Amino acid sequence: MKNFFTNMRTRGYLPLFLLLVVFSCKKESTNIGLDLIGDESLANAINVEYRNLSFRTVSDDTFTVNGLSSSLLGIINDPVFGESKASLVVQPQLTETGINLNGNTIDSAQLNLVFDLYQSVDEGTRITNYELNYGDVESELVIDIYKLGEDLSDDIYFSNYTPSLGPKVGEYIGKFDLDSVNREIDGEVVTLSPRMTIKLDNTLGQEILDYDETTLSSNDNFIEAMKGLVLIPRSIVSGDGAIVAVEALNTRSSLDLFYSDSIQLAIPLGVSSKRVNFFETTHTPAIEEQKTGVGRFDITYVQSLGGTKVKIDVPQLDSIIKLSENIVINEVKLEISPDTSLNFNGNFEQAPRLWLLTPDTSNLNQSMTSFLDVNDVRFSESYYNAGSNSYTFYFNRYLQQLQQTYRSTGRNEFNWFYLSVPKDFPITPHRVILDSDAMSGTVKLSVKYTKLN
Length: 453
Description:
Blueprint: E1 2-4, H1 14-24, H2 34-37, E2 46-50, E3 54-59, E4 71-78, E5 82-90, E6 106-116, E7 118-122, E8 127-131, E9 133-135, E10 140-148, E11 165-174, E12 181-185, E13 188-192, E14 195-200, H3 202-209, H4 219-225, E15 229-238, E16 241-246, E17 254-259, E18 263-268, E19 276-283, H5 285-292, E20 299-303, E21 308-313, H6 318-321, E22 327-338, E23 353-357, E24 359-360, E25 363-367, E26 379-383, E27 391-394, H7 396-409, E28 417-420, E29 431-435, E30 444-451
Parallel strand pairs: 1-13
Antiparallel strand pairs: 2-30, 3-21, 4-5, 4-16, 5-15, 5-19, 6-14, 6-16, 6-17, 7-8, 9-16, 10-11, 10-15, 12-13, 17-18, 20-29, 21-28, 22-27, 22-29, 22-30, 23-26, 23-28, 24-25
């Protein structure tokens, strides 16, 4: 038996891998000032702990989506967060041009999308493989397929993109079957990579067969006529729903036409094919209350796919920033714990990794997302520690910079923090429910510093 089950191997995502290599070097030393003042001065270190932190859920930032290695597809009805939907635009392109298909009659048309199953992430001390599906993969979904009603340009597309839709050309009702599939090819049974096959209307297939030679003479002409397909999840038939990753730039994903005694024309989704993911979230009243309200909340919500982030106000940091003395920051540590009181049968696990970012200086509602260099002090990240049920962030150098800036200029440049699911990992639709009651002890901010003579 031939084995084409190549997609099950662990895959790397180069841009993500490079980001993680960079960021893994940025974990703050807990003794950042010791090279300046010596170990013995720790005996004179001052330790303070702050509890007056304020947490509130706000809308997350949009992010670019038309360069993703893998794309998301599906719909989830999260009992806490509400409905999340991942839709997708794909663009099949001809591998053979100058063909003439006039006079042929379509037998069937289908869209094949190969699943992307795993993401390999370098966490510094280990390589971890994360499954690229979320929710209940046993759920049945309804997905509508439309012709794209507008040209895809070379512009940057964002996660809140709304495409122009042409006529509906297909519908998928069923589960995401992530197991390999056996098919008979040329009389031999072969094992193929896991994929979903969506039956399309024959009218679409016949329309392509009837294109004239000019339309099929180049990909530019073909794309002008058949701009792309849009897949939009409509509803959940059973279960909580699921979101999976598909490869929309892999030639094994394709639009297939069968005609004239099962002759096949495969129009693949290759590396030059444009693809755009876009996301929609409909939050529960509890989350909407925080997004539109003010004040602090004991439970807050972090969600990827442009859903939510958490704004963290830390007014007591001013007491360190505005110190008139020359000090060295030895350690600044923020510990935050998820609320694990609710059980979702393993369908909605904690996000494996979170970012702690400062606001963008040009737009305080936006997180700082562009790193000027690999040592940007405005950034910190943390992996979830299941043993302590916590995320731990260090920002020693950032507080040191803030204090030095205030002493030299009199400006306090600290505003607040944003906590979010990383934007470099949009193919994992994670979320976290935070126990953000700082007075209960689940949130801990501690600062250790030493005064210099």
